[in-house]
Amino acid sequence: MSDWTRLSAAALAEKLAAGEVTSVKVTQAHLDRIAAVDGAVHAFLHVSAAEALATAADVDARRAAGEQLHPLAGVPIAVKDVVVTKGLPTTAGSKILEGWVPPYDATLVERIKAAGLPILGKTNMDEFAMGSSTEHSAYGNTHNPWDLDRIPGGSGGGSAAAVAAYEAPLAIGTDTGGSIRQPGAVTGTVGVKPTYGSVSRYGLIAMASSLDQAGPVTRTVLDSALLHELIGGHDPLDSTSIPEPLPALVEAARQGASGDLSGVRVGVIRELQGEGYQAGVLARFEESLALLRQAGAEIVEVSCPHFEYALGAYYLIMPSEASSNLAKFDGMRFGLRVEPSEGPATAERVMSATRGQGFGDEVKRRVILGTYALSAGYYDAYYGSAQKVRTLIQRDFDAAFAQADVLVSPTAPTTAFKLGEKLDDPLAMYLNDVATIPANLAGVPGLSVPNGVSDDGLPVGFQVLAPAKADDRLYRVGAALEALLEKEWGGPLLDRAPELEETR
What we know:
Layout: H1 9-17, H2 23-41, E1 44-47, H3 49-64, E2 77-80, H4 107-115, E3 119-123, H5 157-164, E4 170-174, H6 181-187, E5 190-193, E6 214-218, H7 221-231, H8 249-256, E7 265-269, H9 279-294, E8 298-302, H10 310-325, H11 347-358, H12 361-374, H13 380-401, E9 406-410, H14 426-430, H15 437-442, E10 446-453, E11 459-465, H16 471-489
């Protein structure tokens, strides 16, 4: 194999286990790829070459000594910069945390390190995960590998772009309203939002604590299942962590890859299609439904009437929780500290000056929205009402799952738009998450799998949703669709992406 960066994580794991290649060689190949193309893509904020190679060398030595290792040991990974990593900078894409190096690891990072996966570095993101395009990073835009003039989705555009550009076989993202799945759709990668509470949030820099969820970003459904099983499971350090083991995700993905969905009921969500959805997105969606039907699935239509209010409810709940969570960034204890330009340096003046210079416009917009929604006299009218809508959306899911094993929709209404195209129109930007937000409000798991390209030659995604704690259903259906599509295409969708020019 001349280019180890083109293999899936599962294929790399097999070759590492068989002794056909070393982790040092695989890790160096990915570091070389980052050096070659990331000048154009800007997926990474920090590359940890020395640390990654040290981990790889350790794994190789332990494997040579005959030690039993985790199946993914030696396979490199990238981590979204909202996840704290001991000894590596963690900025959440914000100037207010520029240069901050955490003294501890997030639980999922501990699990990654314990399994022996070399961490290539930290990926770019919208500041504090607030955005749908990775244009709100304080450290510059990430570019879509399919078209460098277009957005890679957000907030986790860096992780998706790194995987799509073959800079990493695996990555960690976080999904608060679609920040794993929407970038997956527009970059031709697989993105999974696990059931809320099934992957520890300990060590995630919180935006909205009742919505945030970490999950896998990969190029195949099986790779996502392998990574999900590694990072998931109960964590006593997270009070919202589910005290139960995960279902058999890898087994479900392997079962689905056979292409047999006999007996599976697939519910098409009536409210998540039609007006506002690009014609090519809807065409690929209908073609994918036909493939699922051919695989033996029963296709039924379901209605979730309160989904039309999900966007409004989300943009009250999320900023309210964000305004509370971001209060800790005050210039007093860690991160950026800005002294006031005039007058005495009182605590209030330092906080005001630090937040004024440290937070970007989108973060300020959401903090102001959230603070207003939580203020005296408005709490019941805004935040309280949004929580009632959230309950209605959860009931819609319950009713729909009584009729179907999984629910499906397009992941995003359009393909990747051009950088700068929607920056001056926040509402247009927010509408990118119209199909992904309901899952976060209800806490159910969701998966986006690439299902073709639209008429503009850009990738689109197919979203699968399952009941809480039934993440295995995502992997069975997602792997089946992936196998059927790749049989039609003669290979993965990313094989059709234009080759990136080296910039080093």
